[in-house]
Structure formats: structure tokens, C-alpha cells
């Protein structure tokens, strides 16, 4: 992970695809602990360091994760995420060209806990949650297409599931129908930008994450 923004109340890091945001059954050290350790060492803090997790990224996804360094910031950021006041854009690399260069996708997602997977339906079904995103084609390489995705709702595996539903599974995402995995176990989905009004200072914070270090991402570096 790399720290891309930090002040007294907020810290934003660029996570690699292999890191988990919070502890899970794998027992691997989560990103939240790595960030706590960084704060402890950087500021020679004694005792426990406070760090609030306000949102998550799936493990194989890279990019920006926002954490709160104070309880005041945590409460406000939680409200802002719930109320859709935090604007996040993602970049996704897909093999198939989407049906239109730009569009809004509306589906109804049903989460299967056992499979840790979501299923998208075009109409409302029992137990489904409405999922909305806007996508735009912003780049092409010889074999792939780069989409910029603006999330309107925050559902389980939403981008992965909705893009797969329109025939554009994300490169490396076996779970949602891409034929081959990426060598490093990542999928080509990157939380590229985040912007929000600072929970304490009320200034506008806008942060962009550097792209992952792979040749495929480098092909889109100039955008």
C-alpha cells in the first residue's frame, strides 16, 4: 500500500490487488492493520492507534481506500458513504466492447453468501437490491477496452456483476465469467478517484490513484 493523502482526520491509501481491507478467515494481515502500524511508527504513537474502516474493496481489486483517523471523522464519513456524498470512479479493463460507448446500467442484484457472488436480474426479484452505475468507454488497446465507471449505489461485487451481465466481464475475473485469471490473482478493476467534502475542515478532497504496475495498465497510462 502507498499513502496518497493524509491529515489529522483522514488517511487515503492506494491498495495493491493482493491486500484485504479487513481481517477474514484467511488470517492474512489486513490493510487496516498495516495502516495502523504505519501511523504508529510515523508518529511514534504509544498504545493502540485508532483507525476506522468506512468502506471496503474486494481483495483482487486495487486502488483507493479511505480510512478515518478519528472517531469524529469516522461517524461523519460513515454518514457520507451511506448518503452517496462520496464520489468514486473506477477503471475497468474488459475484453469485449460494451454495446454502447456510454450508458447507465440498472439491475437488481441478489447476493449468494455461500458462493460469495452476486447475480444480476433485469427486473425486480425477491431479495434483490437495485444497483445503478454509469460507464463510459475511455480507452482502447489492441485487445482490450478501458471503461470508467461511476458508481451510483454500493452493492456487493456490483461493478463485476453488472459488467458481466452486459457481456463485458473484467479481465482476470473468473468468478464472473472471464476465461483466464491474471498471473498475480488480481482482476483489472482499479478504484481510480475519490472526492468528498472533508468531514471536519469542509474542504473538497480529490485524490487520484496511480495505476498498477503492469504492462496492460501501462498501455492506458496516458489517459
Descriptive overview:
The protein is built from four helices and eleven strands; from the N terminus they run ββαββαβββββαββα. It is α+β, with helices and mostly antiparallel strands and 223 residues long. Strands 1, 2, 3, 4, 5, 6, 7, 8, 9, 10 and 11 form an eleven-stranded mixed beta sheet that branches. Strand 1 and strand 2 (10-15) form a beta hairpin. The mean pLDDT is 95.
Estimate percent helicity.
Answer: 10-25%
Please give the count of helices: 4
Low-confidence stretches: none
For the record, give the distance between the C-alpha atoms at the N and C termini, rounded to a whole number. Answer: 23 Å
Listing every helix as H and every strand as E from the N terminus to the C terminus, the arrangement reads: EEHEEHEEEEEHEEH
What is the mean pLDDT? Answer: 95
Amino acid at each position: 500500500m502507498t499513502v496518497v493523502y493524509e491529515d489529522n482526520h483522514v488517511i487515503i491509501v492506494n491498495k495493491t490487488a493482493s491486500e484485504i481491507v479487513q481481517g477474514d478467515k484467511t488470517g492474512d494481515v489486513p490493510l487496516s492493520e498495516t495502516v495502523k502500524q504505519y501511523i504508529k511508527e510515523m508518529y511514534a504513537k504509544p498504545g493502540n492507534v485508532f483507525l476506522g474502516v468506512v468502506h471496503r474493496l474486494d481483495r483482487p481489486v486495487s486502488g483507493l481506500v479511505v480510512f478515518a483517523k478519528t472517531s469524529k471523522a469516522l461517524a461523519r464519513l460513515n454518514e457520507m458513504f451511506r448518503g452517496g456524498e462520496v464520489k468514486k470512479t473506477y477503471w475497468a479493463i474488459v475484453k469485449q466492447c460494451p454495446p454502447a460507448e456510454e450508458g447507465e446500467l440498472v439491475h437488481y442484484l441478489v447476493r449468494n453468501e455461500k458462493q460469495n457472488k452476486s447475480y444480476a436480474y433485469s427486473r425486480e426479484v425477491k431479495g434483490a437490491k437495485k444497483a445503478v452505475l454509469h460507464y463510459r468507454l475511455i480507452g482502447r488497446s489492441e485487445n482490450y477496452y478501458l471503461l470508467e465507471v461511476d458508481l451510483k449505489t454500493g452493492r456487493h461485487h456490483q461493478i463485476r456483476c453488472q459488467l458481466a451481465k452486459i457481456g463485458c466481464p473484467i479481465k482476470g475475473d473468473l468468478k464472473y465469467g472471464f476465461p483466464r485469471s491474471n498471473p498475480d490473482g488480481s482482476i483489472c478493476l482499479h478504484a481510480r478517484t475519490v472526492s468528498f467534502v472533508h468531514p471536519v475542515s469542509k474542504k473538497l478532497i480529490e485524490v487520484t490513484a496511480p495505476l498498477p504496475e503492469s504492462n496492460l495498465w501501462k498501455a492506458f497510462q496516458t489517459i
